[in-house]
Amino acid sequence: MYPAPFIAVEGPIGAGKTTLATMLAKEFQFPLVKEIVEENPFLDKFYEDMEQWSFQLEMFFLCNRFKQLESIEENYVNKQQPVVTDYHVYKNMIFAERTLSKKHMDKYRKIYHLLTDDLPKPNAMIYIKASLPTLLERIQMRGRSFEEDIDPAYLKTLIEDYELAIEHLKQTEPGLPIITIEGDHTDFVSSQQDYQQIVQNIKEQVL
């Protein structure tokens, strides 16, 4: 933990992480660091054949997030400056545990810890919780071509995985404030009241 807030916004695919992170960065005048997604050259292949392309996909994400965390450490954490991101690096383990074979997962876990254990972690987290119908609706609305082939069963398991991951973080990082947003009933884009409630929660629990 460090004095300046390092806020991560998390949730399953389609939950609205980047949208909310962008809104909050503007609200508090904090720099925003967004994860690299569409630039991943393995995304299309992964959604067509997860077993074949999962390791390449996850390694690309891990290496890019590692470089971003290095930059966050240098430009914000070491200077005690605030920052907002639309992901927590622990999401790498959430996705990898679901998609990688045991053989690949054993290798991946070693690389993950080697790269990230000595890098800064968020000292506050916003978790957008949402059901499968909500995620599917939002994914369809944003119209990313590579997401057209997402298996709803895969999304369903991600929802469950995120719930387990959040509980894991609560146990392993008991001092980490986690603000949970019920995405099925909270419209932070269209409802100013809903959005301001999130802002107020952050002011009370983080700032």
UniProtKB/TrEMBL annotation:
The kind of enzyme this is, by top-level EC class, is: transferase
Q: Detail which positions bind ATP.
A: G11, P12, I13, G14, A15, G16, K17, T18, T19, R138, I139, Q140, M141, R142
Locate the transmembrane regions by residue number: none
For this entry, the protein name equals: Deoxyguanosine kinase
Q: Which domain of life is it from?
A: Bacteria
Concerning Pfam families, the annotation shows: dNK
Q: Can you quote a single GO CC term?
A: cytoplasm
The record's listing under Gene3D superfamilies reads: P-loop containing nucleotide triphosphate hydrolases
Gene Ontology terms for molecular function: ATP binding; deoxyguanosine kinase activity
Kindly indicate whether the keyword Kinase belongs to this entry: yes
InterPro entries linked to this entry:
DCK/DGK (IPR002624), Deoxyribonucleoside_kinase (IPR050566), DNK_dom (IPR031314), P-loop_NTPase (IPR027417)
SUPFAM superfamilies per the UniProt record, alphabetical: P-loop containing nucleoside triphosphate hydrolases (SSF52540)
Question: Keywords in UniProt for this one?
Answer: ATP-binding, Kinase, Nucleotide-binding, Transferase
**Active site residues per record:** D86
Q: Which family does it belong to?
A: Belongs to the DCK/DGK family.
Domain annotation Deoxynucleoside kinase: ranges = 7-206
Q: Which PANTHER family match?
A: DEOXYGUANOSINE KINASE, DEOXYNUCLEOSIDE KINASE
EC number(s) on file = 2.7.1.113
